[in-house]
Specification:
binds magnesium ion, about 260 residues, 7-stranded mixed β-sheet, alpha/beta, 2 domains
């Protein structure tokens, strides 16, 4: 049986609740700055999350929810510029310390490092967004905790395609049986599962009704010793917060 060597983390929704008060707000600021009258409220944004990737999401919005908008010439450039502005607003919001890590995330990362596990990020978001989040929550040195930050357009097919996980494991010379993934969404678990990975889910408000039937474990959050998680699916084997012992057991059972 393969030994667990690496933990692969999604970012948005998993490490932090970035969507509603981060990405969504940044998109709206970018639209306003560009003189567009578009506004993505919380409910609409939930629907737009069907599509991963900010540029892809803007195009999906226009195709599905704002068909009257007359697309300018050089449409791809227009979307790219709008998205670059969104990234500036988003990283600025993170820099202001507005978005904390979810419960248990910092603790689990520290424990994994102490025990010599390899860490990596596999996300569809823009690379600058990942470094800004790590910097603002765990400090500048934390970027080096991660052997690899696989992010954004590095693979053309974003989640739910498995490509970002496959790419990360190839770079790290690891097999799926040597890794475990942490995700929060249906697109995320589809990507991780298609890449052959055991997956632990922590849900959030946007993803609680998603289909996680093939997840090894589904929790409301990772939990802390004084803030137990609720198990929504799977067996937490008597644990009340996610630590490396439980992660290892989940991995073992999935790969046994
Ligand atoms: C995250 C996303 C991202 C962000 C926006 O998905 O879908 O697109 O919402 O980021 P996951 P960018 O958590 O599955 O990685 O605007 O930088 O693309
Ligand atoms: Mg996510």
């Amino acid at each position: 049986m393969a030994e667990l060597k690496a933990l692969l983390f999604d970012v948005d929704g998993t490490l932090a609740d970035t969507e509603k008060d981060g990405h969504r707000v940044a998109f709206n600021l970018a639209f306003k700055q560009a003189g567009l009258d578009w506004y993505w409220d919380e409910a609409l944004y939930g629907q737009l999350l069907t599509v991963t990737g900010g540029k892809e999401r803007i195009k999906y919005y226009l195709d599905q929810f704002n068909r009257d908008f007359v697309k300018p010439a050089h449409f791809d450039e227009f979307v790219k510029d709008l998205h670059a502005a969104k990234t500036r607003f988003y990283t600025q919001l993170l820099g202001e310390g507005k978005i904390p890590l979810r419960p248990g995330v910092a603790r689990l990362l520290n424990e994994a490092r102490t025990h010599g596990y390899r860490l990596a990020i596999a996300t569809t978001t823009t690379p600058e967004n990942v470094t800004a989040l790590l910097q603002s929550t765990l400090g500048p040195a934390s970027i080096d905790w991660f052997e690899l930050i696989a992010a954004g357009d590095i693979v053309p097919a974003k989640k739910p395609a498995p490509d970002i996980y496959v790419w990360a494991m190839e770079k790290m010379a690891l097999t799926p049986a040597e890794c475990i993934a942490f995700e929060d969404s249906e697109n995320g678990i589809r990507s991780a599962k298609e890449a052959g990975l055991a997956t632990i889910i922590t849900i959030n408000d946007y993803t609680r009704d998603h289909n996680f039937s093939n997840a090894e474990l589904v929790l409301d959050h990772m939990g802390e010793p004084d803030r137990p998680f609720t198990v929504l699916q799977g067996d937490a084997q008597g644990h009340h917060y996610l630590n490396m012992e439980l992660v290892k057991r989940v991995h073992q059972q999935a790969n046994g």
